[in-house]
Amino acid sequence: MARQSTYTPAYAVRSVAAWGVALLLFFPLGWLMLTAFKTELQAIAVPPELFFSPTLENFHEVNERSDYLQYAKNSVITSVLSTIFGLMIAAPAAYAMAFFKGKHDKDILMWMLSTKMMPAVGALVPVYVLAQKSHLLDNPIALIIVFTLSNLPIMVWMLYSQFKEIPREILEAARMDGATLWQEARLVLLPLAMGSLASTGLLCLVLSWNEAFWSLNLTAANGGTLATLIAGYSSPEGLFWAKLSAASFMAIAPIVVFGWFSQKQLVQGLTFGAVK
Amino acid sequence: MKRTLPRLLMAPAVSTLFLWMIVPLVMTIYFSLIQFNLLQPDQSDFIGLENYEYFMTDPSFGAAIMNTLMLLGSVIGITVVFGVLIALLVNEPLAGRGLVRILLISPFFVMPTVNALLWKNMMMNPIYGVFAQVWIFFGATPIDWLTEVPLFSVILMVSWQWLPFATLIFMTSLQSMDREQLEASRMDGANFFQQFRYLYIPHLGRSVAVVVMIELIFLLSVFAEIYTTTGGGPGDASTNVAYLIFKQALLNFDAGVASAGALFAVVLANIVGIFMIRMVGKNLDK
C-alpha cells in the first residue's frame, strides 16, 4: 500500500484518539501501580496526588505481614504443574484427533467443550466434599487437579486446531523413511508442535494464575494462591490502599508482563485458530 | 486395529474429563435429593424434591437469573461494540501503536480479585475514589456505586476486564482484511459507513462468534468480582446464579439446596451452550 499519505491530519487525530482511549482503559491499572508506591496518607489524599516521592515501604510490609511468599509459591506451583499435566494429557488426544481422523472426532470435541459449559458452581459442593473427605482442603494439590481438569477442554481444542495446520505429508515422509512412531513424534512432530504447545501452555498458565473461584472456596492460608491473598483484603479492616496496591502489584505484575509478550500466541490459542 | 493407537492416546483426556463431568453430576443429583448440611454431614434424610422447591421459591432465585442474564448480555454487548470500535481505531497507522496495544490489552491479565478490589476502593469509593473526584470536579454529588448501582458496578468491572480481550481478537481479525478490496471500494466512492456495513461487518462475523462464545463460558460463572465487592448485595441486587449457589453451600452450609441450584445452573448453561455450539459448529465447518 502507498505510504505517502501517512502523516496527515487524520493520522494525528487518530493517534490522539487512540492514545486517549488506551490511557483511559489503562488508567485504573496505572493508578493501582502508582498507589503501590505511595504512603497510606498520600494514597487517600483529596485531591489525589499525581506527583510524590515513591516509597517501597508497602512492599516490605506486605511481605512481612502476610506471608506473601507462601501464596506466591502456591500460585507458581499450581499454575505451572496444572499446565504441565494439562499438556501431558491434552497433547496426545489432540494429536490423535488431528492425525488419525476418526468418525467421532467432532462429537468428542463438542462434548469436551460442553463440559466447559458446566459452570464451576455446578461442581462446587461435590468437589468440596471430595476434597474434604480426602483431606485436600486448603492443599495446593486440590487446586492442581481442579485447574488441570477445568482447563483440559480448552487445551485439547487449542492444540487440535493448531495441530491440524501441520501438513500431514511431513509425517508421512518421515514414516516412509522408516522412522518409528516414537522417532516420528520426537524428531518431526515435536519441533513442529513446539509453538502450539507453548501458546496453549501460556494461556493455561494465565487462566490458572488468575483463577479465583476454586482458590477461594477450596483453600485458605496454607494452600491459597495470590488470588486468595488479595481477596483477603476485601474485609473493611484491611482497607489500606497503599498496601493493598502493593500486594496487588506483586500478584499481577508477573502475569501482566508475561501477557504482553504472548499476545499473538494467545489470540491464536483463544480463538482456536479461527481468527487469523 | 488401526484405531488402537489413537484410542490409546485419547483415553487419558476422555476418561479424566468424563469423570470430571459424571462424578460431580451424580453426586450433585444425589445431594439435591437429601437433606444435607455441611456442618452435620452424618444426618442425611431423603427428602425428594424439597430442595428444588426451596431453591425455586427462594425470592433470590428470580433476581439471580435476571442478574445473570443482564450481566451476560450487557458485558457481551459492551465488549463487542466498543471492541470493534477500538479495533477499527487502532487498525490504521498511528503514533506508538505497539505501546497503545500493550496499554489496551493489559486489563485482561489482571486477576479478577485484584480487578474487583481496585474498582471497589480506588475507583468507586464514594469519598476518596477517582470517580467521586471527577464528579466533584464537575460539581455533581458523588454516588456510592456499589450500594446505589451494584449490578451496574459489577458490569463495569467485568467489562473492563473483557473489553481488551474482544479488542485484541478484533484487531487480529482486521489485520487479515483484504487491503485491495478496501482500496477498490474507496475508488468506487464508498464512504466509511458503507465500507463498515458491507466489508468490515461481514469480515468480523467469525471473530464476533468466537468472542461471544468464550465470554459466555467465562461470564456465566462470574464470581470473584461479586464475592470481593458487593457480596451479592445489597439484598439480591448483584447476586447471580453462581453466587447464589455459593451462598447456599458455603455460607448457609445447605449443600442440598445448593445442589438443587447447581443442577439448575447446569441446565441454564446448557441452554446457553446449545446456541453456542450451533454457532461454533457452523463456524468450524468452514
From TrEMBL, chain A:
GO terms for biological process: transmembrane transport. The keyword Transmembrane helix applies. Residues 72-262 form the ABC transmembrane type-1 domain. It comes from the Bacteria. SUPFAM superfamilies: MetI-like. GO terms for cellular component: plasma membrane. This is Sugar ABC transporter permease.
Automatic annotation (TrEMBL), chain B:
Belongs to the binding-protein-dependent transport system permease family. PROSITE patterns: ABC_TM1 (PS50928). The lineage of its organism: Bacteria, Pseudomonadati, Pseudomonadota, Betaproteobacteria, Burkholderiales. Residues 65-276 form the ABC transmembrane type-1 domain. Keywords: Cell membrane, Membrane, Transmembrane, Transmembrane helix, Transport. InterPro entries: ABC_transporter_permease, MetI-like, MetI-like_sf. It is a multi-pass membrane protein. Pfam families: BPD_transp_1 (PF00528). The chain crosses the membrane at residues 12-33, 69-90, 102-119, 149-171, 204-224, 257-277. The keyword Transmembrane applies. One of its GO terms (biological process) is transmembrane transport. GO terms for cellular component: plasma membrane. This is Sugar ABC transporter permease. Its main location: membrane. Signal peptide: none annotated. It is found in: Cell membrane.
